[in-house]
Automatic annotation (TrEMBL):
EC nos: 4.1.2.13
Keyword Lyase: yes
Pfam families xrefs: Glycolytic
Protein name: fructose-bisphosphate aldolase
Enzyme class: lyase
Species this chain originates from: Roseovarius lutimaris
NCBIfam families the UniProt entry points to: PRK05377.1
Record pathway: Carbohydrate degradation; glycolysis; D-glyceraldehyde 3-phosphate and glycerone phosphate from D-glucose: step 4/4
Keyword Lyase: yes
Family, per entry: Belongs to the class I fructose-bisphosphate aldolase family.
Taxonomy, superkingdom: Bacteria
An individual GO BP term: glycolytic process
Gene Ontology MF terms: fructose-bisphosphate aldolase activity
Length: 297
């Protein structure tokens, strides 16, 4: 019944998904924004201990619960550790009512044809078996679109769906994330190409399969409405993509049926130097704001 309950929770959409999945490359920046400079740790192991402590602090805050936070995306090392004396995925679901997801991609390949594909994932099957055993509900994988390149965008979407089918084969729910860089001049054109490619691949899925989509907030409100309504889509979530929390929330509220899956925008204003009371209050305010934007559309 757990999978059914988790699917129903994600489908209901009355909240948002927290992205706590900063990887090795993005961890120093995440820690710096949290008030911990690179000079304060001397090894990669110490760095990952510090970022896990940050994630655990977030997950154990009173406001971080299933009332407004539907799910949380974890980094692999977070899945392998404990929060509150329990394996992380179990803690999230059993103690907080938050559906656990796992980031599975291994980073981006070099830019080519206006996009960055995902690096090969030869050990994905083994990771998916571990994830399923750990109680993970779904996965997330990210590609990047830097230009309105028809062939590049098709390559991104084709790769995402190919890997999604592998994930579905393990009984897990894939979040497909073809991020469109917010600063590119032809962002709207790239979004039009992406929409067409996504619809083509969604239409080709079997009737009994669904995926989730994680997309950059579009230039035109409700531009992705056909994806929100598509029967092969369990949920459409939005990344903050470098927008401030205020701007990301404003854009999100204009898009009916899309909920947040913010990382940097969620942790904006949080600091390792804050007392627990200050930290919990700041996080509660962020959760309230993002939740409201998620249900406003």
């Amino acid at each position: 019944m757990t999978k059914t309950s988790q699917t129903d929770k994600i489908r209901s959409g009355q909240g948002f998904i927290a992205a706590l999945d900063q990887s090795g490359g993005s961890t120093p920046k995440a820690l710096a924004l949290y008030g911990i400079e690179e000079s304060e740790y001397g090894s990669e192991a110490e760095m990952f201990d510090l970022v896990h402590a940050m994630r655990a602090r977030i997950a154990q805050a009173p406001a971080f619960n299933g009332d407004k936070v539907l799910g949380a995306i974890l980094f692999e090392m977070t899945m392998d550790r404990e929060i509150g004396g329990k394996p992380s995925a179990q803690f999230l679901w059993q103690e907080r009512g938050v559906v656990p997801f796992l980031k599975v991609d291994k980073g981006l390949a070099e830019a080519e044809d206006g996009v960055k594909l995902m690096k090969p994932m030869p050990e994905l099957d083994a990771l998916l078996i571990r994830a399923s055993t750990a109680g993970i509900f779904g996965t997330k994988m990210r590609s990047v679109i830097d230009a309105a390149s028809p062939s590049g965008i098709e390559a991104v979407v084709a790769q995402q769906f190919e890997v999604a089918k592998q994930i579905l084969g393990h009984g897990l729910m894939p979040i497909i994330e073809p991020e469109v860089t917010i600063s590119i001049k032809d962002k709207a054109e790239a979004e039009a190409l992406l929409l067409r490619a996504l619809l083509t691949h969604l239409d080709a899925l079997p009737d009994d399969q669904q995926v989730m989509l994680k997309l950059t907030l579009p230039e035109s409100a409700n531009f992705y409405a056909p994806l929100v309504k598509h029967p092969r889509v369990l949920s459409v979530v939005a990344l903050s993509g470098g927008y401030s929390r205020d701007e990301a929330n404003t854009r999100l509220a204009q898009n009916t049926g899309i909920i947040a899956s913010f990382s940097r925008a969620l942790t904006e204003g949080l600091s390792a130097k804050q007392s627990d009371a200050e930290f919990n209050a700041a996080l509660a305010a962020a959760i309230d704001d993002i939740h409201q934007a998620s249900i406003s559309g």
